[in-house]
Amino acid sequence: MTSTELDGTAPRRTPSAAEFIEVQASPDFQELRTRLRRFVFPMTALFLLWYLSYVVLGAYAHDFMAHKVFGNINLGLLLGLGQFVSTFAITALYVRFANRELDPRAAAIRGKLEGGQA
What we know:
The protein has 118 residues and is mainly alpha-helical. The protein contains 5 helices and 2 strands, in the order ααααββα. A two-stranded antiparallel ribbon has the order 1-2. A hairpin with a 2-residue loop joins strand 1 (68-70) and strand 2 (73-74). Helix 3 (27-60) runs antiparallel to helix 5.
């Protein structure tokens, strides 16, 4: 079965290598890449700084990390759990960012490329 038989759409054409290079040089693709980098690089740096701080505190600030917050729960445990929370938060932020900013632009570029209008 072809894709036309399965979903009623025409099969997509495969772009040439020259068309890929042309699209990579286009302003639309450059804008897409710039938007991705503006999100990913600062977020990565922020998370790595946060993680490094946690590791350094765990290695050198034992008294600080052992400070009891309530019951047997100390600051080190809460900061460690914060690593998981921040990972999920960054993932959620990226998904929202990608759905709003990246995916529509990428779909437009892909449509031009596969439609032969690149």
